[in-house]
């Protein structure tokens, strides 16, 4: 597994690279500026049960240490999204499972100031090609709140199949929220996801 990580993936000015301790200032600035915009979509920790201490939000350094540990264990690929070298978001390949399943899931967010430029479809395509090509995974899932139209458009444009609803799937913004499951298997993109995205872009360029 470690042969596939760390890795940097690039398509023109858009890239994915491992999250680093020295990204702290940039990551915190982007997160702080986008707090209200991202609140509806970011996973949260449910309230502690009676008698239990409240869960503390990890510090940036604790988060990076956890992500690095998961990456070295082969369970996760924790990327930051870059545009012209600037940190503009995050994409995580998580839940990596081998054996008879060979699957993973992808989650992402982007700075509102950079939304709508085709950055997220590009990095999803880069990560899918890495998972299917270099890593040999079979299936990728993306779970999205039904209300999150921009995120749903990303995966629908790329050809992910909507498989159904997972009721009360993740705790987000103070409650258990339903999510739609989108999925794709390697045989559904024989040409590669990035090649598919470039073909779509050439016919329907983003504004």
TrEMBL record:
Ranges for domain N-acetyltransferase come to: 14-187
Q: Which GO terms describe its cellular component?
A: cytoplasm
Show the SUPFAM superfamilies listed in the entry: Acyl-CoA N-acyltransferases (Nat) (SSF55729)
List the keywords (alphabetical). Answer: Acyltransferase, Transferase
Q: Does the keyword Transferase apply?
A: yes
One Gene Ontology molecular-function label: protein-N-terminal-alanine acetyltransferase activity
Gene3D superfamilies (UniProt xref): 3.40.630.30
The protein's matches in PROSITE patterns, at most eight in alphabetical order, are given as: GNAT
Checking InterPro entries in the record gives:
Acyl_CoA_acyltransferase, GNAT_dom, N-acetyltransferase
Describe the family membership recorded for this protein in Swiss-Prot or TrEMBL: Belongs to the acetyltransferase family. RimJ subfamily.
Specify the protein name: GNAT family N-acetyltransferase
Q: Could you tell me which species this protein originates from?
A: Streptacidiphilus fuscans
Taxon lineage: Bacteria, Bacillati, Actinomycetota, Actinomycetes, Kitasatosporales
């Amino acid at each position: 597994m470690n042969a596939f990580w760390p890795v940097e993936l690039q398509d023109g000015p858009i890239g994915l690279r491992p999250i680093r301790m020295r990204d702290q200032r940039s990551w915190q600035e982007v997160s702080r500026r986008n707090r209200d915009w991202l609140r509806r979509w970011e996973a949260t920790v449910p309230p502690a049960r009676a008698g239990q201490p409240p869960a503390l939000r990890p510090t940036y350094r604790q988060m990076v240490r956890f992500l690095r540990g998961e990456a070295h264990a082969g369970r996760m690929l924790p990327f930051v999204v870059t545009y012209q070298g600037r940190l503009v978001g995050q994409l995580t390949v998580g839940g990596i499972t081998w054996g008879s399943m060979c699957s993973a899931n992808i989650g992402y967010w982007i700075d509102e100031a950079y939304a709508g430029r085709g950055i997220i479809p590009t990095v999803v395509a880069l990560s899918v090609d890495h998972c299917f090509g270099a890593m040999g995974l079979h299936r990728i899932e993306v779970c999205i709140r039904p209300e999150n139209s921009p995120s749903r458009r990303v995966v629908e444009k790329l050809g992910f199949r909507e498989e159904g609803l997972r009721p009360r799937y993740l705790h987000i913004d103070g409650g258990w929220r339903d999510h739609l499951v989108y999925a794709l298997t390697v045989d559904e993109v024989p040409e590669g996801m990035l090649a598919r995205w470039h073909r779509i872009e050439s016919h329907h360029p983003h504004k």
